[in-house]
Structures are given as structure tokens and as C-alpha cells.
Amino acid sequence: MKYIIFLYLFILFPLKVSSDFSEDLKTIVNTKDCDWKCTFNYSEVTSKTIEYFPRNCEDVCAILTFNSNTDLAESELKRVFKQMHYLIGGLRIENSNITSLSFFTLIKVYDTFNFICDTCKLYHIYLIGLSIVNNSLLEDIAILQNFQFWVTPHSAYECPFQILNNTKLDTTDNTTLKDMSFLKSLKEIRSKHGKINRNVVLNIHDNYEMRRLGLDNLEELYDVLFGPFFINLENLHPEFCLTFEELLLFYEQRVLFNNIHAKYCPESKKKINGQKLCEIRSLDTLDSDCDYLLGDLVIDSYEGRYLYKLFNVIVLFGTLKIQYTKLEGTNFFYNLEYIASLNDSHPAILVRSNKYLKQLKLPNLKVDSPSLTIHVISRHKDAVVIEDNPVLFSSNMECLMYRI
Ligand SMILES: *[C@@H]1O[C@H](CO)[C@@H](O)[C@H](O)[C@H]1NC(C)=O
Ligand SMILES: *[C@@H]1O[C@H](CO)[C@@H](O)[C@H](O)[C@H]1NC(C)=O
Ligand SMILES: *[C@@H]1O[C@H](CO)[C@@H](O)[C@H](O)[C@H]1NC(C)=O
Ligand SMILES: *[C@@H]1O[C@H](CO)[C@@H](O)[C@H](O)[C@H]1NC(C)=O
Ligand SMILES: *[C@@H]1O[C@H](CO)[C@@H](O)[C@H](O)[C@H]1NC(C)=O
Ligand SMILES: *[C@@H]1O[C@H](CO)[C@@H](O)[C@H](O)[C@H]1NC(C)=O
């Protein structure tokens, strides 16, 4: 089985998929103030039930379910759904013969379809959301790019979202998701896992055609119970890349990664947030006023006289290696806040064989509060390796954590 995406928005554990259709629909009707004339009160879409679909309504309340009993041509669905621009409730396409989702009709001016995904119920946790599972003939879900997903802002409940085991979608090159831009209006992902839970919130894996994340409006990722927020990016297209902005967002939001199978996106920019970005060739040719660095920074025994150039650096997109130096400390990294390394063959930080090194203090490198590790993104499994620095102050907390 191949998963395309398995993404929970506003997830709440443990999962319990609701099975009581009429209870669920009643909740939607009550909480969303649905007009009964515009409510589709049937648990599946078939040639029999479709007669009762409220064809003249723009806002339809329903748990619209397409399954193995769905025996309607997509052209017929297109006709029936012509007026519907807002779906309030849930959408399930499971075990069906459907080939394309283009039977939804977009609002002309905005080119969008609105999905008000709100499925909360007090005390019982239950899930409807959007589910596209086990559809062996489905090959076109492009319309999801025009879906606007809405979730009640005050709600701590969840809008689960899953697309998995749709064989054609997984294997047909031209229709496989190249990015997640169908969720481009998504601003916020909240989880509710807590401090000891290491559940992955955003799990994107085995999407061999995925080259970009494409969640361009994403601003906030956090756990409402102050736990860690895990993302997994695994087995994507070999050119899958993250932009500097995305990496900075992950830093600001303190995201942790199980896997980060990604490169830096090729970009020619010279500034980030109005501050200077420099590519590292060597320290002697590096400008002395760089705020962001791209590349692998090696500080060896001969680099001592250039270290002043690193004083302004806030972020390093690359690896840091300090080796064979006569340095006693690392004060020249006074402003360094963040390292994001996407090199899978080296740890993000390697400090080795510095005979005189007493202090390895990176005063502004942020510590991640839930796990108390220094916040470094590392594609290599070891984020930090410190070895063979004989006089490194042994009571230094940061060193003790990584001592080898
Ligand atoms: C749906 O129909 C059933 C049976 O006619 C009825 O009991 C139920 O109240 C209806 N639900 C809604 C939300 O209108
Ligand atoms: C779905 O496709 C299968 C295989 O082609 C067929 O046997 C089945 O009758 C179809 N189901 C419906 C509801 O059309
Ligand atoms: C998908 O198919 C598997 C295997 O046939 C089944 O166990 C699972 O319940 C199906 N999922 C859905 C949502 O129907
Ligand atoms: C995937 O979906 C197909 C039907 O499309 C089903 O026969 C198969 O059992 C499913 N596999 C899993 C692992 O759910
Ligand atoms: C993908 O699309 C191109 C041109 O649009 C076509 O030549 C190619 O055969 C398609 N590939 C697949 C696997 O459908
Ligand atoms: C990782 O670093 C090594 C040595 O610094 C370099 O040769 C290699 O190209 C880098 N790999 C990537 C994917 O950047």
C-alpha cells in the first residue's frame, strides 16, 4: 500500500471514526444551523438517494459519501451538484469506482469550492472530515487545489484529512501530487498530543512525485498542549526541496522532524527578510556582513583571522564543522540562532579535536522547550557530534548532552 498523504488537521487522539450517521448529521445540522431543505439526509450517494439531493441549494449540509454502492456517472453528479458551492459537514470517497472529483462546481469569481469541515461533538471524539481511501480507479483529484477548507476557529476539535491507497493516484505520474498546493490556503495546523506524545502531525511520505511542499500560507504549527510538533518528510521525489522561508517557519514554530528527506530549493536570492544571504565558498572570501549563510562552514586551524565575519550570522543553512583549531571558545557565533542542515552524510554540527577548546557556547542558539535539545534541524541522524576536545568544560550542560 502506498500512502499519498496522511495529514490530520486539528487532530485529537485517540481516533474514533464515527459510525452513527444520523447522530453525526444531527450534530452538523444543529451546530451549523442548517436549513433542513438544504440537508442531504442519506448516508451514501446512489442512484436511489440522489433523487433527494437538494439541487437548488448553494449551501448543502451533508456527510457526502461515495462508496461501493455509488452507481452514478460522474456527468450525472456534475449536474446534480451544479448549484452547490458550500459543503458543510463531511466528504468521504471510499471504496468507490469514481475516477475524478471534477464533479464539484467552483464558484466562478473566486474559482473555489468551500468545504466547511466541522465535525465536533462534545465528549465523543469522532471524525468525518475529508477521506479519500481505497479508490482504485481514481486518477484526478486536481480540484482539491481549489477547495477552501474551513474549520470553526474557536474549535479545538479536528478536521481529519486523509488520502490513501488510491492506486492510480499513487502510480500515475501525471496525476500524482507534485506538491500540497491544494492546501495552499491552510494557515494553521494544530495538534493536541501533549508533551510525552511523539505522534507525527504532518506525515508526508512515499510520494515519489512530490517536489515541493507548497503550503504557502502556513503560518502556525503548534500543539495546544505544549507538546512537540513532529513532521515527517520521507521518501519523496529526489529533488524535493524546502525553501528558506519554509525552513525559517519550521524554526520559528519549533518543529521537530522524524525524517527530512529534502534539499534546499535552488534560489538565487541575496536577501531574506531584507537581510543579507551569502553563499559560503571559503571564509577568506566571505563578506563580513552576512546575516544568513548557505553552505557548509568549516572552521579549521587556519581560519582564525576570519572569524569576525561570523559575528552577524543568525542562521546557517548548512553544516558547521569546527576542527583542529586552537580556539578556546566560540564567541564569534554570538548571534547564531539556528542551523538547518539538509546534508544526510554529516551531522549538522561537528566539533572535534580542538585541543584548547574550553567553552562551546552558542548563546543564541535556541533551545527547544519540550525536548530541551538545541534546536537544530539535521537530516543526518546525529544533529550534534562533539568529540576529542580534551579540555571542554565538563560541567557545560550543552556539552554533557551530546558528549560522546
Ligand atoms: C433524517 O431522516 C430520519 C428519518 O426520516 C430522521 O429521523 C432524522 O431526524 C433526519 N435527520 C435530519 C438531520 O434531518
Ligand atoms: C465498480 O467496478 C467493479 C469492477 O469493474 C464492478 O464490478 C462494480 O459493479 C462497479 N460498482 C459500481 C457500483 O458500479
Ligand atoms: C480500505 O481497504 C482495506 C482493505 O480492504 C479495509 O480494511 C479498510 O477498511 C478500507 N478503508 C475504508 C475507509 O473503507
Ligand atoms: C487498497 O484498496 C483496494 C481497493 O481499491 C483494496 O482492494 C485493498 O485491499 C486496499 N489495500 C489496503 C492495504 O487497504
Ligand atoms: C504524462 O503526460 C504526458 C504528456 O502530457 C504523456 O506523454 C505521458 O504518457 C503521460 N504519462 C503517464 C504515465 O500517463
Ligand atoms: C554533504 O556534504 C558533503 C561534504 O561536505 C558533500 O560532498 C555533499 O555533496 C553534501 N551533500 C549534499 C546533499 O549536500
From TrEMBL:
Tell me the leader sequence span.
1-19
**Keywords for the protein's UniProt record, in alphabetical order:** Signal
Q: Organism's domain of life?
A: Eukaryota
Q: Which InterPro entries match?
A: Rcpt_L-dom, Rcpt_L-dom_sf, SPS2_domain
Domain Receptor L-domain, by residue range, is: 174-247, 289-399
Q: Name one Pfam family in it.
A: Recep_L_domain
The protein's name is Receptor L-domain domain-containing protein
